[in-house]
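To: structure desk
From: M.T.
Subject: fold request, one chain
Message: Could you run this one when you get a chance? Sequence is below, nothing fancy, just the single chain.
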Amino acid sequence: MSQRRRKGRNIHGILLLDKPIGMGSNESLQVVKRLYRAQKAGHTGSLDQLASGLLPICMGEATKLSGFLLNADKHYRTVFQLGEKTATGDAEGEVLERRPVDYITRSQIDEVLTEFRGEIQQIPPMYSAIKHKGQRLYKLAQQGVVVDRKSRPVTIHMLQVLAFSQGLITLDIHCSKGTYIRTLAEDIGEALGCGGHVRELRRVGSGPFNESGMVSLDGLRELAGEGFSALDNLLFPMDSALSHWPQINLSEDVAYYLSKGQPVLVPHAPTHGKVRLYDAKQRFMGVGEILGDGRVAPRRLFGKGP
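Reply: Done. Structure tokens follow.
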């Protein structure tokens, strides 16, 4: 019995979507998938409905790279509201407590922020997708159930104040994967003695990508009227997700053996880590890793495009 043929276009690449406020990440993904009529597509890390900004969407073979982007550092611009603690840690939640903020100065904020740079410990919020005994924490939170959560290490590479006025702090944040900005807002608020929550959140960077290449859903809908070629011109090549990795160029013979799953010896290759692999015609083959003996082993190879 023959396999059912997938519907849609067999396209490969990465779209940098500017997700709008008020729409979920999966809902945004489905709109993009329909506009492109793509066989296969997936996003690379959810943004809350409250948040806007960079949501890389991988199509076709590029979906095999989703894990690398999920694990990449992120870059946010955000506004924290001091003096109000909410049930969800953001502006959508019920206000649980209000405290005065008129005593807080910029110098106090600068001093407190030094405690939150570098590697820190975070307790994941109840309103998160982490599972506890098979159930998502946010579903338990919606039922009024609170469970103990273990703290996790995250790294705050940059935490810079852009503005401060009337209890609102605008921040530029560059952080590791798994960082909860809502938790950061709450913890900074508590350190200042007044509480706080996220009022606005926008992601402007994910791994090697930044906001300069983003396109809105309205922009996509408009281009869709010009045909698929206009939409396809917005796609970044698959290997752009790994542009910060070393590149290894393989001869025809070496590429053949590697494509069969065999580790190969490549002169002048890096001594450790993951690498991008290209064949003799400079076509992207996939991801490799340097073994202890110096050989390059294939880790994730991609099929040919349409």
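Reply (cont.): The first strand starts at residue 13 and ends at 19. Let me know if you need anything else for the meeting.
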